[in-house]
Amino acid sequence: MKSINVIIPAFNEEKSIGHVIRDIPKIVDEIIVVNNNSTDNTQEVAEETGATVVFEKRKGYGYSCLKGIEYLNNQDKEPDIVVFLDGDFSDFPKELIPITEPILNGSVDFVLGSRVKKLREKGSMTPQQVFGNWLACFLMRILYKSNFTDLGPFRAIKWDTLIDLNMVDKTYGWTIEMQLKILKKQIPYQEIKVNYRQRIGVSKVSGTLKGTIFAGIKIIGWILKHYRTK
Q1: What whole-number distance in Å separates Cα of residue 110 and Cα of residue 193?
Q2: Contact in structure between 148 and 179 (CB atoms under 8 Å)
Q3: Distance CA 96, CA 154 (A)
Q4: Residue 198: per-residue pLDDT
Q5: Structural domains in the chain?
Q6: How many CA atoms lie within 13 A of 90 on its CB side?
Q7: What pLDDT was estimated at residue 131?
Q8: Cβ distance 199 to 89 under 8 Å?
């Protein structure tokens, strides 16, 4: 049976991280919570709930994801599939099963959980998030003939494929970088519609003006950078 590991970046998610970990299906081999310099009890709660916790002091979503990959790369046995999941309980961890199924049956190498409007709780995404996702996906469709409809954080990818992508973004551009490299390398992918609810706590990106602006700049920058090097 193929092994599945989950990476959860977490910054001050003590109120939500336990809910996330408890709801992850038992088919997962290991849950890695990357404590991104939290000042609360995120680490303690994650460990008490059964996760492996690694520490990344450099703040940034990409830094956290890269630290999780580094941890897995140093283990004796590499996973077959890696799932990325947020620590704020906005995603539905139980949907990990349909998210990984297309990879398990050999159909694709990458699956993105798409937060479609009809499955989103009201207020779960800010207007700037909705617009930013639409704009990014519109540009990818025009420039790369992409079928992506979202930049959602809930995603699964084959380990070998993930390593081959050579991910480098340290902050807001992590998700778009992965999708652009999937498109550029013509890696088979699929979207699965997923539910989405209001997060526990305040978003560190869309919840602040600075985060929203910098995320938008990073996303557009990645799209244009990759287009110029096609």
Answers
A1: 14
A2: yes
A3: 8
A4: 95
A5: 4-228 (3.90.550.10)
A6: 27
A7: 86
A8: yes
Q: Which residue has the tokens 């996906």?
A: 137
pLDDT one-digit tens code per residue, 116-136: 999 999 999 988 889 888 989
Residue 61 · residue 38 · CB < 8 Å:
no
pLDDT digits (tens, 9 = 90+) for 132-153: 889 899 999 999 999 999 999 9
pTM: 0.91
Mean pLDDT of the chain: 92
Q: Count how many residues are written for the chain.
A: 230
Which 3-state string (H, E, C) describes the chain? CCCEEEEEEECCCCCCHHHHHHHCCCCCCEEEEEECCCCCCHHHHHHHCCCEEEECCCCCHHHHHHHHHHHHHCCCCCCCEEEECCCCCCCCHHHHHHHHHHHHCCCCCEEEEECCHHHECCCCCCHHHHHHHHHHHHHHHHHHCCCCCCCCCCEEEEHHHHHHHCCCCCCCCHHHHHHHHHHHCCCCEEEEECCECCCCCCCCCCCCHHHHHHHHHHHHHHHHHHHHCC
CA distance 7 to 71: 10
CB atoms within 10 A of CB 203: 16
Residue that is written with structure tokens 């994801």 in the block: 65
CA distance 128 to 5: 31
